[in-house]
Amino acid sequence: MVMVAWLARGALLLGGGLLAGAFLAAPVGLRFGGEGLLFLFLALWLGSSFLSGSWDRLPILGLGGLIGLAAGALYFELSPPLVLAAVAVILLGWDLDLFARRVRGFRRIEGGVVRRHLRATGLVTAGGLGLALLGLNIRFSMSFGLALLLALASFASLVAILRLARPRS
Amino acid sequence: MLEFRSFPLWATLILLLLAAGLLLRRGEILLLILPSLAYFIAGLWANSSIAPIKLVAKRTLSHRQLAGREEAMVRVEVRNEGPRRLSEVRLRDRLPPGLTVLEGETGLVTSLLPGERVELEYRVTAMRGRFIFEGVEAAVADSLGLNLLELELPCRGELFFVPRFEELRDITLAPRRTRVYSGVVKARLGGTGVEFYGTREYSQGDELRRIDWNATARLTRLITTEFEQERVADVSLILDARARADVLVGGESLFEYSVEAAASLARYFIKEGNRVGLLSYGRYLDWTFPGYGRFQLVRLLEALTRVEKGDSVAFAGLENIPRRLFPPGSQLVLISRLLEGDIEVLRQLRAIYAVIVLSPDPLAFELARLPRRDRAVELAWRIERLRRELMLTQLREAGVKVIDWPVDQPLKVAVKKARPQLKRGHASWSW
Hints:
The complex is a heterodimer of chains A (169) and B (431). Chain A is mainly alpha-helical. Chain A has 6 helices and no strands. Helix content of chain B is 31%, strand content 35%. In chain B, the strands form 5 sheets. In chain B, strands 1, 3, 5, 7, 9 and 10 form a 6-stranded mixed β-sheet that branches. Chain B has a 6-stranded mixed β-sheet with strand order 17-16-13-18-19-20, sandwiched between helices.
């Protein structure tokens, strides 16, 4: 499915470009060498999209790395809207890349599968980005103790969900 | 039930961002969770909204048994018998190794409404072999591809490619011994038959119409004409399955032509009423006990379908051909490209049996498949050609009848060329 693969690569380049833009727009004192890492992760990821086999694990590494860089950028307060948009687009690229890898080797793709996937993934990405941008305007404060408590509660709930969603036969 | 495969990834990502945001006290990092959380929630929702999945596959094959290189049509119908729409279904028919797809697709990605069906259709071929289709691999995912269920839809099928054979005719056998049943092989015995054999003195009970009146008048006593009896013979086919005797060029194997020749000969000799056995001589000995008729032909073709070439120290040369398997004086037909050391063994066999060698020509086979022919190739070819001619001449001189077969020609053409030699008189041999 060549078209989806190129869409994925385009989204990754766009997301990487947005993130790079945030890095480059930062004052010199706030730069932490993220551009180099960004280039490395993107190059590995895009390179692996042309290969198959064990290279299929690289997108996870790429996604983790790029989101980590985005977190670093936000820590240094580098243009949050740009970074959030970059992450949303990178997520879209990741999803499309995975879809392209899933259907690679199939020449018969029918029944509107591609269209339905693009619609669903577009909706989810747009929803996530919209929420994140909305969140930029919400300001509230909490004590460190409460934050820690919330973190622990979130962790416990995630573990519970993980158990619930364990593969069933 | 679908499995939320990327659940650990999303959970870890969200957890790490949450921890980082809270520990670094950066609200913006917490916002990074939201796009990931959207995927996570979509995945959970898709996981819970999927009803039980029921896919059923049915396979139809155009043939069950066919000759090598013929084409069979495979159709696999997959139907969604579950209550819900399946957004992404990946189907891949598991093809038995050795089959070649000529046309069509063995896999597809589609979506299936309840009750909807989809069909995979493709044409396959093979040289020979038994091919068993087990089932179709299916992977069902939600429209985001976050939840996945892999399953195998059983739909067995079996294709049997017997080696391709040619219609042959007029292969004259000259065994020193025949069996008691009437057939078409000259038995070198007087009696009832078609061809004149000799005359003898009349004995009581001879039919009047068989009296040779001219000879009777000349010799002034009653002389009876005798005809040559025609009987069936024991024919043992020996297929040279030594890997070292094979030639492989561009994925094509000379051995496969030998197998096809063996099938053609088996069919011909069985049709002529003979008792035919088959010995495959390679990694091990595979002996198909001799027999008559259609069932024997089926057994021979089955044996040829499964025959494999291989090497063994014990069977590196032809000297270990187990002679006790073949009745003395019977007809042996060796199908082999022939190696240097084989000539002496064939000479020895010739002392006990009538021997025909059908030799697929390895030089013509290889030359026709070479990508380019330069002067060095031409020279090498001429040298090898001379060596082969010498080998075949040595065999002919030893009384072995040789059919030299350039495999790109039909076998019947090679048989026709060798016919004068095959028809030549029987070698003298006292039993």
